[in-house]
Design brief:
Length: about 250
């Protein structure tokens, strides 16, 4: 694999599992120094051990993207450790699915806090370092649910909000050599989709089969499919691509 990110530092929030881990592994394989912020200490330790075994420079910190002080401190430590933060991928997310009439205040607020406030805190904290270096790549992980999805009023709203956030960042930060783009995954096989299957009371095989039947390419996505799209946006050669939303879903959502 080409080492397109040699000398770069990539920070992935929520990077210890699922899509986030796939993105971390892609950056590491292409020569980047990687940093992970996550609340799942056990999963992060396991991911860190895997990377260190491959002699990948890695920084990890147990921190919540919803806590401003924790995020700002982590950014400072990453810069002190690696010298810069060149790429930020806002991946941290949660689901609290339910039909609107059953959705609690906590269900709504938790999803908004992690996806929107979390991306805001991380991006606001990192932009000062990127502006100083006149270089940066910000990639937000949205979702096809941004187009609407039954039982996900909170998640769909948050993921749509991230798209508006992304486009605004492109306007504000472009003159500083910083691009901002979003990747919107469709059905991707992760722990989160397995948890959704369990929640609705079906096996993951049944849940996956039903989802695939609606996907034009007739297969499910993997974390590496999202990592491919993120790597494109993060590349130095993508400097003329900003404010875009790339749906990685095996075809248009029906």
């Amino acid at each position: 694999m080409m080492r397109n990110f040699e000398g770069r530092t990539a920070l992935v929030t929520g990077g210890s599992r699922g899509i986030g881990k796939g993105i971390v592994e892609r950056f590491a394989a292409e020569g980047a120094k990687v940093a992970i912020i996550d609340v799942n200490e056990q999963a992060m330790k396991e991911t860190e051990a895997e990377l260190k075994e491959k002699r990948i420079p890695v920084y990890t910190k147990v921190a919540s993207v919803t806590e401003r002080d924790q995020i700002e401190q982590a950014m400072k430590e990453i810069v002190e450790t690696f010298g810069s933060i060149d790429i930020l991928v806002n991946t941290a997310g949660v689901i609290r699915d339910n039909l609107l009439f059953r959705m609690t205040d906590e269900d709504w607020l938790t999803v908004m806090e992690v996806h929107l406030k979390g991306a805001f805190y991380a991006t606001r904290a990192v932009q000062q370092y990127m502006v100083k270096n006149n270089y940066g790549r910000i990639i937000n992980i949205s979702s096809t649910s941004a187009l609407g999805n039954k039982g996900q009023a909170n998640y769909a709203t948050a993921k749509a909000g991230l798209q508006g956030f992304t486009k605004t960042l492109a306007f504000e930060l472009g003159k500083f050599g910083i691009t901002a783009n979003a990747v919107a995954p469709g059905f991707i096989e992760t722990e989160m989709t397995k948890a959704t299957a369990e929640r609705v009371g079906v096996t993951f095989e049944e849940y996956s089969k039903a989802a695939i039947s609606k996907i034009p390419v007739a297969k499910s996505g993997k974390p590496e499919d999202i990592a491919n799209a993120v790597a494109f946006f993060a590349d130095e050669r993508s400097s003329f691509v900003s404010g875009q939303v790339l749906y990685v879903a095996g075809g248009p959502k029906g």
